[in-house]
Amino acid sequence: MAHSGLSRAAGIFVAPPSDGSPARSRNNETAQRYGKFTMPSINYRTREINCKVVYVGPSLGGKTTNIQNIHGIIPDQNKTALSSIDTEGDRTLFFDYFSMDLDDIAGFKTKFLIYGVPGQPYYRSTRKMVLNGVDGLVFVADSDKSRLQDNMDSLEDLKGMLKDYGYDYSTIPLVYQYNKRDLFFITPTEEFEEVINERGCRSFEAVAIQNKGVVETFRAVCAEVIQRLNETLTQQFGSIRQ
Ligand SMILES: Nc1nc2c(ncn2[C@@H]2O[C@H](COP(=O)(O)OP(=O)(O)OP(=O)(O)O)[C@@H](O)[C@H]2O)c(=O)[nH]1
Ligand SMILES: [Mg+2]
User: Fold this and answer.
1) 209 confidence band (pLDDT: 50, 70, 90)
2) Range of the domain at 58
3) Is ligand 1 within 6 A of the CB of residue 212?
4) Which end of the chain is more exposed for a tag (fewer CB within 10 A), N or C?
5) What CATH number is given to the structural domain containing 57?
6) Which atom of ligand 1 is nearest to the CA of 207?
7) What is the pTM of this model?
């Protein structure tokens, strides 16, 4: 199996060993472990896998800036155009979206679909629609000290929407990004770790406008999603030959 590009560069494709038990009981075990877990959409007929990664967080936190920067570094032949619908003041009205081709995984053509939700409280229904079928999340927090409560509100809003879909916030692949570290009055990282990162997930400081911490964050969420995908494929097919 070839897995160059992002997956190989990040060193993230690791097939867990098969335990030899029947697929059905392994599926049940995973369901027990993760609750109702989200799962990349796998089309066995066309042998395609789509993994959906969604950037969430408070308005003006830097979701669109992250997505624009990631889109900018992916070679043209591996991505679709970035679609963003903004107001004049740069705030996302609908959602940001592009898709990116990865190498084949276990003979399946694999794509990552990258979305950024509108952070403003008013657009909750759009946010919720975008979260449907999510496989991995990046929570982009705004380090501006005056926005700590907005970050916390946004996280509560996210938890509520995941719950409405029956997804388990405590196990869904997730990384946090503490953006805008270039500002003068900022929430200390230790405080974010306490009030935002209660799950103890991987977290990254970033200055998205300077492209700092953006790729690291993206790699981390892709790694989480691919690891979950690996577990899912292993349950269904036994061990994956590399
Ligand atoms: N100082 C500073 N400004 C940033 C940083 N990242 C983004 N910004 C600015 O913050 C503003 C909002 O950034 P966006 O990326 O549009 O934020 P968003 O999270 O997509 O906002 P919504 O679409 O409203 O949810 C823009 O003016 C960005 O240039 C950063 O690291 N530091
Ligand atoms: Mg935006």
Assistant:
1) very high
2) 5-237
3) no
4) C
5) 3.40.50.300
6) 31
7) 0.85
